Amino acid sequence: MNITTFLNSSLHFNAYRRYPFLLFELKSITRQFFTRSRVFLRVLVNEIKGTKTVPVHNSGVTSQVIQINRRPLLRNLGDTSCNHHWNSLLGKIIGKRTNNAIAASIRRNIAKNLANGVSLGLVGVGFINKDNVPVLFNEEDELDAVIQDIRLRFSAVNWNIGSQFNQKGPIMFNLEDIKFGNCIAKGCNAAVYDASIEPKFPNPIAIKVMFNYDAESNADIILKSMAKECLTFQGNFGSEIFSFSKERSPLKYHPNIIEILGTTVDMLPSLPEAEKLFPSALPPRLCEHGFGRNMTLFLAMPKYDCTLRNYLDKYYPTREISLILLSQLFDGISYLVKNGIAHRDLKADNILIDLREGHNYPWLVITDFGHCSTSLILPFYSDEISRGGNQALMAPEIILAQPGSFSYLNYSAADIWSAGAIAYEIMGQHNPFYKYPDQLNHLDNRTYDESDLPRIERSKTINLLLKKILNRKPSSRPTPAQARNVCYLLLLLNQRKLVHLRCLNKSNLKPSIKAGKIIPLIKNICSSTLFQRTTLINGRQLNSVEKAMRTMFLSQLNSEDLLAAIAFIQID
């Protein structure tokens, strides 16, 4: 064993058992003497130059954990199936920020940090290169390094967040396996039934029955014609012979996107209330006035409690609940845009809500991808090409586009515009682009001006954000990720910390100073999430929705989007 390996291992607890006591003490004292001398000289030189430096992570660098406080801080986390993963993650993240030479300084600042609610000095780590020399950078570099490290650590956690079932792989079923209940929803293109698939799948599910007017009664043709509805289905439709199965590239699971559990193509049976609710979609053998085909597509999905429309009608969401919904909505749209998908039919009826944690902690998923496009930019050479669904919530650049040989439809910022209009409903106000019986005037997405947009009374920050989202110029709108981060910051930080962030928007503030102020706030969010508490001091236990949202936020952090989100912060 070489001297470097020995010295590195000496910092770990098990080293006390591996090596003789005297040899260990001698090596440890010698190494610490040279290490602290180097750090002292470096800090002294930088102080003389007037440059403030801090230790951070660097490529090709290894880390060493130094235990500062051995108290059992994890004993009160509660009995959850994921605690062992949190404990592992805790040691990887919190223990990667400081060198042994400043361990004493961390101890002195613990009381101060606890009082300010900034960060908890639990363990320290020095980052060393191959020559055992500490690496020092400024605060801007540290902000990128801290955020990158947090993002990578939380991205490695596969919680299957938001999934109602611990289902491995798609459900394989036939029409005979389905026990249909009542019809729970009906649209222009499909009806949704309460159902179960027993004994193959004991959990209650929803079966979406597609209306087939055009595709001939052939399984392969039906699957191709309704491929967009199967966007998130991970299976191969039960048969390798379908050429469609080999061509498709399904969208991977995301907690805020509907999960398709299984599909089947079969003859349309006689369904409860079908002749009353959708007679024209039935084949002539079931209804003499029907125009539908004999075969159609059946989709198995998780059963949700209600649509966003139903939820907003029944409950009046508080500011916090509205931010929970907006964060998840922007998160889902961000994932779609990242994967080059435009929904093109966003509205409150196409958003489902799960209330497993109660109506104060709703979980949101985007559904109904029948009008989606798997490309954000489409050639628009003819008016016969569909622009999408719901025209009232169609972005100005889409509704005003004129067909031509060199024309195209750019959906890169179209879904975020639709979400901005829906956000008014989530914040407890009328959608400015809808007609209401008690409202004389409404805005037209073809001709409106940003100054005509109604004001959001409950939040100055959200008011500013929505005005930017509903800007007529797509290039002037924030990205879904930036909009999501704004909502998360409002949710996770108290008023005092928001005031602190607001002060960072001063134009004369140096980037290094701004970065140095942001790092403690991000570390605080990370620490409280790892301990599954709302705050480190006197915080209550996080429920599954809060823990999932925090995990998703931290797993998608990047400094550019975070700084852009901070620029929106206003003080209410």
Automatic annotation (TrEMBL):
One of its GO terms (molecular function) is protein serine/threonine kinase activity. The keyword Nucleotide-binding applies. Residues 178-491 form the Protein kinase domain. One of its GO terms (cellular component) is mitochondrial inner membrane. Keywords: ATP-binding, Kinase, Magnesium, Membrane, Metal-binding, Mitochondrion, Mitochondrion inner membrane, Mitochondrion outer membrane, Nucleotide-binding, Serine/threonine-protein kinase, Transferase, Transit peptide. Signal peptide: none annotated. Its main location: cytoplasm. It is a single-pass membrane protein. This is non-specific serine/threonine protein kinase.
